[in-house]
Structure formats: C-alpha cells, structure tokens
Amino acid sequence: MFTSKLSQDIEIYLSHYLATISGEQVSFSVHYWGLYPKHLDNPVHKHSCYEVCYVISGEGSYIEEEIEYPLSTGTLFLSRPHLWHQIRSEQGLALAFVAFEVMAASTVTKAVKAFHQLTTTTNFIIRNAENLPSVLLWRALLEQTSRMRLISDDYLKNMAHCLLVSFLEAFVENNVQEINLDMHSIIQVNQIKLMIRDNLERLPLISDLAKHVYISERHLSRLFLEHTGQNITEYIRAERMKLAIGLLKATKESMKGIAEKCGFTTVQYFTKVFSAVTGVSPARYRDNFVENEAKMKNKEK
Q1: Burial of 17 per CB tally in 10 Å (0-12, 13-18, 19+)
Q2: Whether residue 193 sits in one domain with residue 156
Q3: Does residue 301 lie in a domain region?
Q4: Contact at 8 Å (CB) between 73 and 128?
Q5: Do 18 and 165 fall within a single domain?
Q6: Residues 62 and 173 in one domain
Q7: What CATH number is associated with residue 24?
Q8: What is the C-alpha end-to-end distance of the chain, expressed in Å?
Q9: What is the tens place of the pLDDT at every residue in 145-193?
Q10: pLDDT reported for residue 160
Q11: Does the global pTM surpass 0.70?
C-alpha cells in the first residue's frame, strides 16, 4: 500500500515525465496520472477523454448514466468520454487512474480508429483483473516510480506506452482480429534502419535491403515512408550526416577518412552534401566546434 505522501510524489513524478508519450504508430497526451490511497465519493461529472481506473484495494461502486456497478479489489474499469459518472465508497478505495487521449496528428489512421472503439465498448468493467497485462504493467510502473531513483525517460515512457496500448486488449473484445497495429511492419522497418546505420560505409542497394526483409522494393519504400515520414534516400542522408558530425566532433579523422566511413565516394561530394545540409563545410564545422569548446573551457577557468 502506498502512503499519502508517496502517492502524491508518484503522481507528480508521472505527470511531469509522462505527459506526452510517443510511439511508432500511436501517440498519447496524458492529462493526469493519479494514485489515491483512500478515494471516497466524488461528484457526478464527465470527461472529454478516456479515464482508466484500477482498484488496488477496497470496495465501492461506479455509477455511469445512473446505472450502478459494484467495485472491489482487482477491478479495472473505463470511464468513456462524455458520459456522466461517479465513484462512491464509504470506506475508501485505493485507486490508481490515468486520463488520456490519442494524439491524432501523430498517430496512424488505423490506430486512431482502433482507440475510438473504446468510446462504444460495452466491456468497460473488468473484475478480477489482477493478472491482466494492463494491471501487471501498471503495478510495475508504480513500483518502479515509487523507488524515486533516476530512471531513463525512455524506460518510463516505453513502459507507459505499453500500458496505454494494452487497454485496447483489455476493453475491446475480439480486438486481436479487428485491430491490427501492424507490428510486423514496424519490425521490418526497424531492421532496415539498423542495416542502414550499421553499413553506411558500404551501403547495400535498396533491392538488397528489400530482400533482407523478404518484401519488394516498392513495398519497402511504402512501409518506410509510412512509418518514418522519410523516404529511404532521405533517411540515409540524415544518418550519414549524424555520423559525419559525430566523427568531426569526437575524432581527428581526416576528411577523406570521414567521407569514406560515411559512404561518400569522394571528399568533394561529401563536402557538397554536408554544406547543403548544415550551411558550412565539414572543415569549418570542425573548426567552429573546436573554437566553441575552447571558449567554454576558458569560461570554466
């Protein structure tokens, strides 16, 4: 059981670090995370977003549109948008909750449609949910946060993203057949991105990249653009620039050596592309970086 002080600290921590959670296909805006050790009655109200609650312990009732549903330890329930509802408990509920909405602008259409099904689902009260993936993820997130150690933002956000996505499986019946977030395509695109990053010096042809994941060039090009917002050529150029900038900053490698490691056939072509992207030549970029580093060191003295 979480104390009042620890519950408040967890709420603040989660709400600060997990207000926006982005993923490959679906992104979320979280209005608040909540953890009440003793939630009593609240007024009748409604939300414009989804609010999911989990009863850690205690008994009470959830009233939606004047229909009362009993709540007990292990109940997971969903308050759907624009419906009047209320939570009541005489003795108090230990309650975890989160209010969120899908960010349509940064979410693929099929994921927006998938989550929209939460607005009409009739499976919004789940009893004995202790072993559901959603609850296990939620408990893990709360437990990790309660330790108040320095945790990677990405680690927390990945865990929270999995939790919010898992609500589809929990509340939408038959969603495995009806909802396809195309994880296989994500895996294929990630394989290609890794293949490109690891082989910039001697980059395979796009036809070979397509063969690597057993699809056609045309299908690969479509998937890559859909999942990254870039075509493959744009992605390759961006990765080459990242590598070049890193080498210019961190090494004394010659321009010829950097050009070769980044997959450019000549120093002249490397300089032309780098200058077009950054506005300065590779040599000038390195000089500027060295000068700025020296100024910073002098200030520290």
Answers
A1: middle
A2: no
A3: no
A4: no
A5: yes
A6: yes
A7: 2.60.120.10
A8: 50
A9: 887 555 566 788 889 999 999 999 899 875 544 445 566 787 889 899 9
A10: 94
A11: no
Half-sphere exposure (Cβ direction) of 108: Cα atoms closer than 13 Å: 17
What is the number of domains present in the chain?
A: 2
Domain holding 219, by residue range, is: 184-296
Same domain, residue pair 215 and 256 = yes
* Length of the chain, in residues: 301
pLDDT in tens, 187-225: 889 899 999 999 999 999 999 999 989 999 999 999 999
Residue indicated by tokens 């929990």: 170
- One domain for residues 31 and 160: yes
